[in-house]
TrEMBL record, chain A:
The lineage of its organism: Bacteria, Pseudomonadati, Pseudomonadota, Alphaproteobacteria, Rhodobacterales. It comes from the Bacteria. InterPro entries: Aromatic_CoA_ox/epox (IPR052703), Ferritin-like (IPR012347), Ferritin-like_SF (IPR009078), PaaA_PaaC (IPR007814), PaaC (IPR011882). Transmembrane segments: none annotated. This is Phenylacetic acid degradation protein. It comes from Jannaschia pagri.
Length: 250, 104
């Protein structure tokens, strides 16, 4: 796989996996308004997936489509961050997972709007508006729930403690990142940590949440080397229809 | 919203109700489109965006706490509105308006 294809696949798999996770809430949200908001966000992310994986499929030039990539690959071919495949848990954990990712995603897309590859920059320019809203919304909920009742605070702190070891992977660059940075001026993950801290830490403080100690980072999602067991279960559900009825259409 | 099954408590634990007004792309004034629940004004604004403007219905949103609206009483309908019923001359439909004036 070329560096460009890997890079685009990572972007598309991030939005696909989180989009599918959020869609699991459809019809189960804690309030009608939240249910609709989560479904809207899921749809935004699936729309972005079509653009990223569509481009990846074309760049790969093996005659595959975005649908083939989404529905026809198995766990070891996915390149999403481990954070995003973690199960939804309760509403608080779902929101915390989105919050941690949204701010990284926003920084990433802002950088991508500036790359020399016009198609990549165009996709980023479209996605960045949606993601700015996602980041705004998840931040507001983190503050509302973190600085809410005793129970909501406890659930948000539990969520942060559980998900924190998956934060580090977002900021660990590799040779693919280096190559796309050199070729297109794509953002280098390591450089996003400081602005992410600047955006996220004050919000967590406002939410009266304590950032866990330790910088241990689970890795293996974006390289595909070591996904957590959760991704396989998720794909089983997500890909079931296409695997049972290949090419089904309506 | 609540798992305790107590209706009295459930009513109190609901988020407050908000009325949503949206100005469409070509509309000149905000129109009432519906209502929703939200914990505060900022959340009401976001919920309104997600519930009511998903298909690019609007370019501006107002949210107002429902309790802030003073409504006319349905039983006062007669005295409130009937006196205007037979005064069609109050409709300014008898004037020719030049086309250049545009929307009135």
């Amino acid at each position: 796989m070329s560096d460009l294809v890997t890079y685009l696949t990572r972007l598309g798999d991030n939005t696909l996996v989180l989009g599918h996770r959020l869609s699991e809430w459809c019809g189960r949200g804690p309030a009608l308004e939240e249910d609709i908001a989560l479904a809207n966000t899921a749809l935004d992310l699936i729309g972005q997936t079509q653009m990223w994986l569509g481009y990846a499929a074309e760049a790969e030039a093996k005659g595959r489509t975005a649908d083939d990539l989404a529905m026809g690959r198995d766990v070891w071919d996915f390149r999403n961050l481990l954070l995003l495949e973690q199960p939804n848990g309760d509403f608080g954990r779902t929101i915390m997972r989105s919050f941690l990712f949204d701010h990284w995603h926003l920084l990433m897309l802002r950088g991508l709007t500036q790359v020399s590859d016009a198609r990549m920059a165009g996709i980023a320019a479209k996605a960045v508006k949606e993601v700015a809203y996602h980041a705004d919304r998840s931040a507001e909920l983190v503050v509302g729930l973190g600085d809410g009742t005793e129970e909501s605070h406890r659930r948000m702190q539990d969520a942060l403690d559980r998900l924190w070891p998956y934060v580090g992977e977002m900021f660990i660059g590799d040779e693919v990142d280096a190559a796309t940075a050199a070729e297109f001026g794509a953002p280098v993950p390591d450089m996003l940590r400081a602005p992410w801290d600047d955006a996220v830490l004050p919000i967590l403080a406002q939410a009266t949440l304590t950032v866990p100690d330790g910088a241990f980072a689970h890795q293996g999602g974006k390289t595909g080397a070591r996904h957590t067991e959760h991704l396989g279960h998720m794909l089983t559900t997500m890909q079931w229809l296409h695997r049972a009825y290949p090419g089904a259409n309506w | 919203m609540t798992q305790d099954g107590n209706d009295m408590t459930a009513a109190k634990r609901e988020w407050p109700l908000w009325e949503v007004f949206i100005r469409g792309q070509h509309g000149m004034s905000h129109r009432h489109v519906g209502s929703l629940h939200a914990a505060d004004a900022a959340m009401a604004m976001k919920n309104a965006r997600d519930v009511y403007t998903r298909r690019y219905e609007g370019v501006s949103i107002w949210v107002v706490p429902s309790v802030q609206i003073t409504a006319s009483n349905p039983s006062d309908k007669g005295p409130m509105f009937d006196p205007a019923d037979d005064k069609t001359y109050r409709h300014p439909t008898f004037f020719d308006i030049p086309d250049d004036v545009g929307a009135m």
